[in-house]
Structures are given as structure tokens and as C-alpha cells.
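Sanity check

After download, print the first record. It should look like this:
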Amino acid sequence: MAFVVELGHAYAVAGRADDAPGVLKQLQETSGERYVNAWWVAEIYAALNEREEAFHWLEKAYQERSALMAYTKMDPWFDGLRSDPRFQDLLQRIYFGLRSTEQNPAVLPHS
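Expected C-alpha cells:
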């Protein structure tokens, strides 16, 4: 399955964006038979610069508690999303279990 995801990403970054939807369709069809990690789908959408879809699938991966979410902060495939406040909010929830608007009780306020 990872090979299929890598292929989708390769199509996207190689300027073959017309071929990437075929990979996404294959993943969708496979998901009817077995688990397909939503994080993988988010990677392909991020590579296609389809931000809304990428965030949709990242949120789905978060809700599914995908183990791959631990790599979100450092994965270069998501570089195009880092400037979006939703990405920072997602990182807060992944690593601290908080929305960025909540105060982290583990951090003491400055005196």
C-alpha cells in the first residue's frame, strides 16, 4: 500500500497531477476491502497543493488516531501546509492534546 501512496506523491510533484487522482481512486477502492490510512491520502492531497482536502484527511487521520500522525510535524510532504493556522492547531492536538486556543496546564505561566 505504501508503494501506491509514494506513486501518488511522485505523480503530484513530477507535474503529473492528472495521474494522481487515479491513485486516490485506487486507495478509495482499496478502502472498501481493507484499512487505508487517511494520513496517506492527506500526503497526496498536500503534494497536489489541495489544502482543503489535505486538511480534511489529516483531521480524519487524527480522529482515527493514526500512528502516522506522530510524523506530521517533520514530514516534508506537509511543508506547504505549515503556514496555515489549522496546521499549528493540529500539531497542538497531536503532541499536547490541546487546541492552540487552550492553555497547556503543564506549562507554568510567566511571573
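If your output differs, re-run the checksum step. Summary of this record's structure: Residues 2-96 form one domain.
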